[in-house]
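FORM 7B: Structural annotation worksheet

SECTION A. Query
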Amino acid sequence: MKILIIEDEKRLARLLKQGLEEQGFVVDLACNGTEGQYQAEQYPYDTLLLDLMLPEVDGLTILKGLREKGNAVPVLIVTARGDVEDRIRGLNLGADDYLAKPFDLEELIARLRALIRRSRGQSSPLITVGDLTIDSNSRTVTRAEKRLSLSAREYDLLHYLALNSGRVISRTELIEHIYASDYEWDSNSMLVRLHHVFESQKRLVADASHELKTPLAVITTQCDVTLLSERRSEEYVETIKSIRSETKNITHLVNDLLSLARLDAGLISASRYEPVYIRDLVAYAVRLTAPLAAEREICVTTDSDDDLQMSCVRTALEEALLNLVENGIRYNHAGGKVIISTTINECRELVIEVRDGGNGIGSADLERIFERFYRAATSRSSNGSGLGLSIVKAIIEGHDGRITVVSNAGEGSCFTIVLPKSIVTSRLTHLSETPAGQMHAP
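SECTION B. Predicted structure
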């Protein structure tokens, strides 16, 4: 929703602009009547916020000129002139609402939204197009009852398209309505990302449906076969055990799907960052995988800097590191090793390595190892969901990091996480005084 504020008191204008932008409005400013009249006549706005006592051209003259030219943009007069005669004159000239100074910002925002809804023939803040629902007040979007994670600008784009559903919208019209006049925009990247959000959700639903149907088919068929004839009690027990095993697989898959859904919905946000010692993340992964390591006789060793600290979404990084360590143990030789190390590289980035001497990954699988639901040849006989590494990748990229893997079949693997220096919160001062060749954690 794009608004033009025509207000000569610059401090008030700037505060209104800030407050409205924080509520999702796109705002242009004009600090005198001449400038305001020109902008109102030349550019499309969803509503005008108009002061009456303006230098050069007064507010009522601007309003009268707009209406005489057939411009029906909603106008909310905001002025210190609160006489009944002024209000009547403004409304008779075509103003849609009137608010006297001083005013409450929340009331102003509510009036603006109501004006815009009325101008579009809306009685509700909810806009529904197919299975897509947009709440104009809370600026939230759901599709098939699942909330989408969109940036503010992506929301503005989708909101405008939904308001004009069924009508062809030119790129120029889109830009004029969702960007401030002086904004430097890149429409292609925004449209591509919005398309990616929808395609990603559609692909996840399709893949999840496919993956869930297989174990459900196994359970159904096993029940049908078992009920074909009378059987010994031992056979019924074996059937129940098999069904229980399949339900565990389904539970694991559902949990992974929920993790991906949370990541797609914006789980990784700087607002959720908290300070975390790297040693604690490593210790968490080692502690939770200790029973599996003991069962497979795998030795897990660590080389982590006790002083190294970063700011991150702790639960997400714990999940990523735990996944890598568990894989290193599960796809290893009996009596093998898993080594977890942390360091700071020459670019002041945090580097976490999880190295094992296990089965390794074949070259044909390496290119697709981080794809959703992809299982490498060495893991296809396991009960994994094929989502673990894609979850790890999403978590790391959500922290503006990257993850790579080096591996050869039969020779083990090394997964390397690199996180940006911006989230490392300790030891950088010390490291900046250390020669580049010595910048490794002790």
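SECTION C. Observations
The CA atoms of residues 52 and 60 lie 6 Å apart. The two ends are 54 Å apart (CA to CA).

SECTION D. Sign-off
Analyst initials: ____
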